[in-house]
Design a protein that fits this description.
- 34% of the residues lie in helices and 21% in strands.
- It is α/β, with parallel strands linked by helices and 364 residues long.
- It has two domains: 202 residues, 3-Layer(aba) Sandwich (Rossmann fold); 142 residues, Response regulator (Rossmann fold, 3-Layer(aba) Sandwich), CATH 3.40.50.
- The strands form four sheets. The chain has a six-stranded mixed beta sheet, with helices on both faces.
- α3 links the parallel β5 and β6.
- The radius of gyration is 21 Å and the shape is elongated.
Length: 364
């Protein structure tokens, strides 16, 4: 059992300065009745090491403030939907008034079916936006958040005709849905969408199909070597000059993305590096290890769940500085996430060209 408190998020009238940093100093301890929060983690099985890292991050979220009324009850989901449902039922029987986790979409669906009858809010780690609903927030970095941010940035430069070149898998299909929605949000016509088999797709044929639509910007949904192959294919398909190339946060961890000339200057969204740097440093100081990218989601989820338990309702409309930058809960399970925009540089680390804004609406 862990004892701690949620972050002191600052209520904002709209996007703007004044957001509370995630590592603000501990508040004065508050006396009063205890409230319980459930923490659903894969502490055994293949994801056991990740679960332990997420448990560490949850402890940081509690330590950053000093309200000793909040008790956190960690439970092992065993990495399965059945295990997650069992853990959720146990937590509800123990009086948990909010749940942080679980990890995967299958586990999340199982937990939501248990929590809904008790009207207990869930702050899940998954990045599948389809799991979001009233009183269920998805805190992973979603394809929709990425596409909305990079399309909005491109639209600010006058870009209106968009296309997508991506693998025909769950990620690519979510990118396609998000691009259609994002184009509508910025007043652009419906985009051209070209999806290829995840393995062995004909990049040249896909690039030719994209080029036939004469887009002003092409979003590449591939990562790693697939992104570089897509870039080279597009360069061949646009001999008179490339359209603006956009990417996803998959590129943030790819040190070699700038080795493909066609991708130099491309834009992609990714979490705020300054916020993440602070979180990584605090985690390393406390636990002597570097956290994985997913670890930060547990920090945010536990902080929000604890704040919900303390105040009696989810902090919808409030913004705070999470492990990966600014986050704001919105109605209906939507999450506004501030993402920075980076430009790919030749042979080197990508350069941030737009900082992460404080989110205020689903299009942020």
């Amino acid at each position: 059992m862990l004892i701690g408190c949620a972050p002191q998020a600052q209520r904002l009238a709209g996007p703007g300065p004044g957001i509370t940093p995630w590592n603000a100093g501990p508040a004065a301890a508050v006396e009063g009745p205890r409230v319980r929060v459930g923490l659903l983690l894969p502490l055994t099985g293949g994801n056991g090491p990740l679960g332990q890292s997420m448990l560490n991050a949850a402890q940081l979220a509690l330590f950053d403030q000093g309200d000793r009324r909040v008790e956190v009850l960690p439970r092992d989901t065993r990495g399965t939907p059945a295990g997650a449902a069992d853990a959720a039922r146990n937590l509800l029987s123990q009086g948990a008034v909010a749940l942080a986790g679980p990890l995967t979409l299958g586990e999340t669906a199982a937990v939501v079916s248990v929590a809904r009858a008790s009207d207990v809010p869930v702050f899940a780690f998954t990045s599948d936006e389809a799991q979001a609903s009233a009183r269920v927030w998805v805190l992973g970095l979603t394809p929709g958040q990425q596409v909305r941010r990079v399309v909005a940035a491109a639209a600010e430069t006058g870009t209106r005709r968009f296309a997508l070149m991506a693998p025909d898998d769950a990620f690519g299909q979510r990118l396609a849905a998000a691009l259609r929605q994002s184009a509508q949000l910025v007043g652009a016509p419906p985009p051209t969408v070209v999806l290829t088999p995840p393995r062995g797709g004909d990049m040249a044929a896909a690039a030719a199909q994209v080029a036939a639509a004469t887009p002003e910007a092409v979003l590449i949904g591939h990562g790693g070597s697939g992104a570089r192959a897509a870039g080279a294919a597009l360069a061949a398909a646009f001999p008179a000059g490339m359209p603006k190339i956009l990417g996803t946060s998959l590129w943030a961890a790819d040190a070699g993305i700038g080795n493909e000339p066609a991708l130099v200057g491309a834009w992609f969204p990714a979490p705020d590096p300054e916020a993440r740097g602070r979180f990584d440093a605090q985690y390393a100081a406390a636990f002597g290890d570097r956290p994985t990218r997913l670890t930060g989601v547990a920090y945010d989820a536990l902080a929000l769940a604890a704040r919900t338990a303390r105040d009696g309702s989810p902090p919808v409309g409030e913004a705070f500085m999470g492990a990966d930058g600014p986050v704001r809960l919105l109605d209906g399970g939507a999450l506004g996430r501030g993402l920075a925009i980076f430009a790919v540089r030749q042979g080197g680390e990508a350069q941030m060209i737009q900082p992460a804004p404080v989110p205020g609406a689903p299009g942020s």
